[in-house]
Amino acid sequence: MMLFDRTSGAAGAMCDALSGTDYVAKLEAALGALYGRACVVMSSADAAFHTALHLCGTKKGDYVFVPSFTFYSYVSTVTGMDAATVFIDCDPTTRCMSAAALEAAFVWASLQNKLPTAVVIDNAFGSVADFDVLTPLCKSYGVPVIELACDAFGGDYKGRPCGANGDYGVVAFTKRIDGGGGALVCGDEETAAREFSRGAFTENENHDYRMHNVIAALDFAQLPDGKKITARARGNLAALAAQLDCVARPTFGDAAAFALVRAANLTQKLKSCGFSVKTPPPVHTMPQYSTRPFFEHEPGFCVACTFSDCCLVDMDVSAGKRRRLAKLLKGV
Q1: Which pick of 63, 88, 292, 294 has the fewest CB atoms within 10 Å?
Q2: What 3-state class would DSSP assign to 37?
């Protein structure tokens, strides 16, 4: 790993970590102050998500409601627990979970007397869900919400940090700080999260998902840089959205990580010019999940399937690179 450290903060933190300073605790305290809830850091987003599912009580055969427009590895985490995925379509405005589809899925599950153990709401690929609508709906059925904010570290929803809008939040660091990875679970069950993820012997299932102290030191030292990167990304997104109709503006929240760009025909050209572009398929259409239940936003109309013509471009770029991007996108 190569690290460019202009202020020597990261290098100093690494030395401190190697000499015994507990940077895992320092990082958790700093993040707890940011999110206003207990935070437990872990080695990866999948580890943090697995822990959140465990805290919800998810077991073999249980339903877990998941968005179709998400990163497929999170769905793999659910199936790895032998839980049953139920896919929920997107809202056309927020591009995140649809309240109409979610309510239909709740009615379906209620008729079976088998409500899900968790509803997973992902602020996916630069979008932020409308939690003021979705969270009360989940609470009315007594089902906890796991907010995935792995693309939204530093983002917010109506003044609340992305990751702090559900019963549990899962936030990854790699989109904002390059200390070496890792993620956090935030919520109100700190002891249970530590017991499950820290490899301590118990009579229950537990895993060694601990973050290495040196990685925690690097992440801690670069938290201030993460704020600067977020501010630059927001500025780039605002500038592009103001001058180009093909760049989507944030709706209810601001993930400050990606721009949604209607320019699928330029995907290869954008990549060749050094831009990060993603065109993820709806997970429910992947062969291994095609037989799982899927609830559409409207009967006969899959909103997530209409997103195939959108690129997702990382906004953490220099002003010069942003201008090159704008030039490429003119006329789209």
Answers
A1: 292
A2: coil
Winning range, highest mean pLDDT, from 6-15, 62-71, 235-244, 250-259: 62-71
**3-class DSSP state for residue 322?**
helix
Residue 74's φ and ψ, nearest 5 degrees, are -70, -35
Integer Cα distance of 261 and 157 in angstroms: 21
Query: With b meaning 16 or more CB within 10 Å and e meaning fewer, what string describes 148-181?
Result: bbbbbbbbbbeeebbbbbbbbbbbbbbbbbbbbb
Q: Which helix (H) or strand (E) holds 138?
A: helix 131-140
Residue 196, CA atoms < 13 Å, CB-side half-sphere: 20
Which residue, chain included where needed, has tokens 């249980």? 62
Mean pLDDT to the nearest integer, 298-313: 85
Degrees, nearest 5: CA angle 34-123-53? 80
Question: What is residue 185's predicted lDDT score, i.e. its pLDDT?
Answer: 96
Residue 11's pLDDT band, with cuts at 50, 70 and 90, is low
Does the pLDDT value for residue 64 go beyond 90? yes
C-alpha torsion angle, residues 218, 190, 172, 84 (rounded to 10):
150
In one-letter notation, the amino acid at residue 71 is F
For residues 263 and 244, is the Cβ–Cβ distance under 8 A? no
The predicted-structure confidence for 148-197, as pLDDT tens digits, reads as follows: 998 788 888 998 999 999 999 999 887 666 666 789 999 999 999 999 99
Q: How far is CA 105 from CA 36, 120, 222, in A?
A: 31, 13, 41
List strand residue ranges (DSSP E) for the chain, in order: 38-42, 63-67, 84-88, 118-122, 145-148, 156-157, 160-161, 168-172, 183-187, 253-254, 258-261, 277-278, 294-295, 311-314
Mean pLDDT of the chain: 87
Chain centre distance of CA 95: 14
| DSSP letter for each residue of 257-311 | SEEEE--GGGHHHHHHTT--EE-PPPGGGSGGGTTS-EE-SBTTB-SGGGGGG-E
